[in-house]
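To illustrate this point, we now present one chain and its tokenised fold:
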Amino acid sequence: MTTRVGRRPRSSLAGLVVALVAAAGCVVGGVSEPEGQQPAPQRPDTPASPGAAQTRADGTTSVEEFQQDVADAKTIAERYWAAQFQASGERFRPIRRVIPYQRAGEVSCGGQALPRNNAVYCSAGDFIAYDVNWSVGAFRQVGDAFVFYLLGHEYAHGIQARLGIRYSYTIQQELQADCMAGAYLGDSVRSKALRLDDGDLEEFREGLLAVGDAPDQPWFAEGAHGTAEQRTESFFRGYERSLGACDLT
């Protein structure tokens, strides 16, 4: 499968920094429910195998292109993690749903209403949810490479849940998810499942700088994700060195 993370026209990140920092509190949500009590899976329609003919290289920023990028990122993430689990002799279960929402409280996780300006993995229902208005805004202002990072980061939380990984501090969980997102993207580029345009690595870097914790955020605080420098280092460590750099064992 081939797709492309196409480059977007650059614009200032200043207007997004506050929203992205708030959104970075991706809740690995709620108390896990027994498998039998979870709602039936509802999977959005996605192309079976997006190829070069479906690649958007025209620099547009339409909602339709955003939706296609989300679908492509989800498909590549599923195939990547399925291959990793298969190589380890384990059965892989894809994340059940990816849910866009528009209003605060429209989606809840373990009884907790999700706020606007956020993207989360919810372990209680095994789904990823994202504020579509905020996400499209980030897509248009930061670039579509960031959409692939965002989906990859939340998918990594689902993999952590499947592997039973739980750290004492939120920051440990989040920096590992950044590393895993980097590995998924770097390995996908090396396997030619994903092609990056010139400037996409810089888009990743600029997006990560925008989602770092505020300078006065204590590293041990609940919900801490790491400074911009820590998040960037974790992501690119995974991108360059693959999953072996992410402390999964």
Observations:
- The mean pLDDT is 79.
- The radius of gyration is 17 Å.
- Strands lie at 4-5, 97-101, 108-109, 112-113, 119-122, 127-131, 195-196.
- The helical segments are 14-23, 63-87, 132-141, 144-163, 170-190, 200-210, 228-241.
